[in-house]
Amino acid sequence: MFADIIPSHDIASFLLKFIDKLLDLIGLKHHSTLEEIIYVAIIVGVSLGIGWLVKKGIITGVRKTMQLRSTELAHEILEQHTLERCSHIIPPLVFLALLPFAFSSESHTLDIIERLVWAYVFVCVGIGVSAVINLAFYRYNKHENTRNLPLKGIRNVAIGLVWIVLIIIAISVIVDRSPAVLLTGLGAFAAALMLIFKDSILGFVAGIQMSQNDMLHVGDWIVVPSTPANGTVEDVSLSVVKIRNFDNTIVTVPPYTLVSTSFQNYRGMKETGARRIEKNVTIDATTVRKCTPEFLTEIVQKYPLLKPFVDNLETKKMLSQDDGGIRPINGTIETNLGLLRAYLCLFLTNNDLIAKDQQILIRLTDVTAYGLSLQVYCFTATTDWNKYEAIQSAILEHLTVTVKDFGLDLYSDSTLSVTSEIAEPEQKTAQIAATAHRNDNTSQANPVTAAPTK
C-alpha cells in the first residue's frame, strides 16, 4: 500500500544486510526469529526518527513562513500545536511500510503486529482530526463568534463522534470483524449507554437550544435563583456551565438546568448601557401639607429649578402637570409632597449621570401603616457597579436632606426612643422604692429605742 510512497524494498534490503553483518560480527548464527526481533526494533527506531525529523521540518518551515509573511493563521497553527499532533501519524505509517519484509507472508506474528499498528494509526488519525477541529473552533470563536455563543459543547460532541467512529474501526481491525457487526452488538447496550452518557446528551441538547435562542454568552452576568450562581459566565462545556461569582467563588451548573428552569441574564442591561434605580422611601403622612402662596415663593427662591414648573401651573390654573413620555414632570403645587415629586423629576432630568433615553419617574406606591411610600425610578447612564452605587447613594442622600426643606419627614421608628424615655423614670422610681424597702428592712433588723415622752 505504501510502496509507491516510501521505497521500502530498498530500505528493507539494506537493513536486513546490516543485521546479517551485525550478527556475523558478534559471532551469532543467522536465526530467523532473532533477525525479526532486531529488524522490528531497528525499524521502530527508524520510524520514530523519521517522524521526529518530519515534525521538526514542518514546524521549522511554518515558523519561517510566519516570520516572512507574519500570517495570523500560522501563528494560530503553532499556538494550537496542530501540526505537531497531526504529525503523530508519520511513524506508524513508516513502520507499516517496512514491517512486512522482516516476516514471511504467512507469519502469524506479522498479522498481530500489523493489526496493533493499524489500531495505533487510527488513534493518531483521531488525534490529528481532533487538532484540526480544535483549530477550526478556535479560529471561528476568535474571528466570527462576535456574540460569544457557547459552541464548546458542539465542538466536544464533534470530537466525541470522531473518536467513537475511530475506536469502533480500530477494535474491528484488532478482532478482525466488520464494524457493522460491532455496531449491531452495541445496539443491545443502547439503554446502558444512554444512561451512562445521560448528562452529556442533555448538555448537548441544552447547548444547541441556548445557541439557537441566543440565551447565554461567555462573559454574561447571570443569576440562577435555584442555585448560588450569581456572577459572570466563564466557560460553557458539554457537561457544565462555569460561573465566577462576585466573591470569586466558582459555581458549576449543568446546561440542562439553565434550559429547564429560568435564570436572569443581565446582558440586555450591558447592551443598553443603563442600569435601573428603584428605591422606596417612606414619607411621614402627618407632615403632608397644602401649599400656600408664601410657601411656594419660599421654595422657588430656595430651588430655582422649580420656577418654570410653578409658574406654568399657576398661569394655567392647573392642579398638576404630567408631560407624558419617558421623562414626565409628574407633580403638583397643591401639596408639599406633590411639589417634592416635581422637584425630584426635574433634578433627575437635569442630572448628566442619569440616562435620558430611559424611564424617569417619581411616584407614590402603596400607603402603609408607616406612611406614604415614595419611589424613585430611573436609570443610570453607566452599568459600572462602583459608579452605579455611587450615583444611587448620592440621589438617596440628596432626597434625605431635601425633604426637610419641603416641610416633610421621612418615617423613622421612634418606638425605641419613646420606650427608653418612659422606662427611665420608671427605673428611677423602682430604684427609689427598692432603696426605701432596703432601709425599712435594715431598721427592723436593728431597732432603735425611742426616748420616752412625758
Q: Mind explaining what this structure looks like?
A:
- The protein is an alpha+beta fold and 454 residues long.
- Among the domains are: 8-144, no CATH class; 273-406, no CATH class.
- It has 17 helices and ten strands.
- The strands form three sheets. Strands 4-3-2-1-5 form a five-stranded antiparallel β-sheet. A three-stranded antiparallel β-sheet has the order 6-10-9.
- Helix 2 runs antiparallel to helix 3 (72-79).
Please give a handful of descriptors for the protein shown.
11% strand, disordered C terminus, 3-stranded antiparallel beta sheet, single chain, 17 helices, alpha+beta
Which stretches are low in confidence, meaning pLDDT under 50 for 5 or more residues running?
1-8, 415-426, 432-439, 441-454
H/E topology pattern: HHHHHHHHHHEEEEHEHEHHEEHEEHH
CA radius of gyration: 43 Å
- How much of the residues is beta strand, in percent? 5-15%
Overall morphology: elongated
Layout of helices and strands, plus pairs?
Elements (H helix, E strand, L loop, with lengths): L7 H18 L6 H38 L2 H8 L2 H5 L3 H9 L9 H37 L7 H24 L3 H8 L3 H7 L1 H15 L8 E3 L6 E7 L4 E5 L4 E4 L1 H6 L3 E2 L1 H6 L2 E9 L9 H10 L4 H10 L3 E2 L9 E2 L3 H14 L11 E8 L2 E10 L4 H18 L12 H31 L9
Antiparallel strand pairs: 1-2, 1-5, 2-3, 3-4, 6-10, 7-8, 9-10
Helix pairs in contact: 1-2, 2-3, 2-5, 5-6, 6-7
